[in-house]
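FW: tagging you since you asked about this chain on Friday. Here's the raw sequence from the shared folder, copied in full. Didn't touch anything.
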Amino acid sequence: MNGLTESPHVSVNKLGRYLTATPALRKRLIEAQKHPPDPQYLRYPEAAHAITDFLCRGQDEALLRQHQHRLATSVFADDFDTQRARLCIEAMEHYRKLHPRLGLQGVVASEVGHEPPVLHMAGVAIRVFPQVVLQSVDRNGNNKVGVMKLYFSKHHPLDERSGQYISTLLQAFAEQHLAALGPIDTKLVRVVDVFAGKEFLPPKARVRRLCDVQRACEEIAARWPVQ
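HL: got it, structure written out here
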């Protein structure tokens, strides 16, 4: 086990749920973070890769079709991988229909990479894991920077509160790690709920939400050793 696995940590998606969850669900979420599933059992990595590829290579819809075709014509060793391929194809189709409404024409996307840094708050490492950096140029020729995070869940769509908490943390990630590229533009900071067909931008009431996150992380850190 590495230090990150042993020390308090939480994914930004789970933290978004934690902040609006019942006490019983909060306990289950901490337990799930302490004992995460094997990465091979994650359901949407191929969809995240395909959408990232699409965004970073000119937003050509043919790329999504190619990824869908590759998965649809592949033969898998077990039922789980077969079902995962179907879910990823479905996720790509949802995103394909959503994309024109996101207003990303003229925005340049680049891949964040596989090991992005974490945010630290109240002794907890928050794994934000955005997929792409977004950059555009304003009318004065100044570079503007943001990030996009893809959210995949058929059965647990983001509600308004969770989406705003996650987008607030996404903005904090951009300010901490991407400011060297230029000013952070909140209009380029996006959390995209793929199956729900919704996007969330950082709210104006940011300080209060960061205080909520601080208190939630204090609670996670306190419960971690005994959970």
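FW: The first helix runs from residue 3 to 6.
HL: agreed, and The chain has two domains: 3-35+106-226, 40-102.
FW: great, closing this out.
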